[in-house]
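Sequence in, structure out. Go.
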Amino acid sequence: MMPQLTHSTPSRSWMPIALALAWIFAVAATGLAHAEDDESAPSENASADVSVPPDGEIDWSILNSDPRSLYDHESPSAIDRKVRAAIDDPWSWSRNDRPDGSSAVAIKQPVSPFLNTRVGADINVGAPTPTSASGILLQKIEYGEGLTRSSGSAWAAITAPGVASVWDKTAVEARTDPSQEQSKLATSLTKSIPFGGERYALTLQQGYNVTQQTLVPLFGISASSRIYEIDQSAKIGIVETGTTFMAGQTHSTTDEKWLRRIAAEQKFFGGITVTGSVSETPSGFANSSLSAGFKARW
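Output:
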């Protein structure tokens, strides 16, 4: 029997975080204003000594050069791996074939190394429709309503540094799915804290998601609804054994209560990973799962 978990109201969870973020940005803005005031005086005095050449003496032909030639004089080890991937092979494809004949295709491309900007699309390719009535009937009997239909979504993501020692990484992702008439904006703040002589690592993550769903038009009038979601998680990893323990909770405006979850992950040799998780559902029952995966790079 699952233990009863107390649910706290969402206002007590995000209000301290919002106040803390507002205070941080206020301090950062004040420090930036003072820094600009300190540098303004020397720059004004030095502006008198700067001479601008006439327009005829400026070599504008450098704008016609290939920007990728800037990386030719550097060794590959001196260039970030993501930048090199964006220059040599900008597109990255992956395909996963399902038992029902459908396929999941993912494509992504780095746009700029600045803030690690990238775009991509996730496409579900439906199974081919049988040409005979008997084939359609057999397909319906075998897979029923679980047959994957063709659909797709496009996304754009940015990963940026955090703010001082408050958090380490900021991630923002925008996704739109025309087939579901749904758009989503997700943000997450991550903080990693190594301890125990770097044998253990604690990772804290706070996420804020907004989903906009377009409703079916009624009498020619279309409408939309927005769903707000807060996700909090903590993860402890043991470096020597490759074991990770996770705990988190999610609050959504559709559920109006916290849904908690726990999970454990074990990495084995050869890129094999086994993950087990137990999570609450809006109905109050527990949902457990056990999965295994394999990952390899060449």
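Check: The two ends are 46 Å apart (CA to CA). The chain has two domains: 74-161, 168-298.
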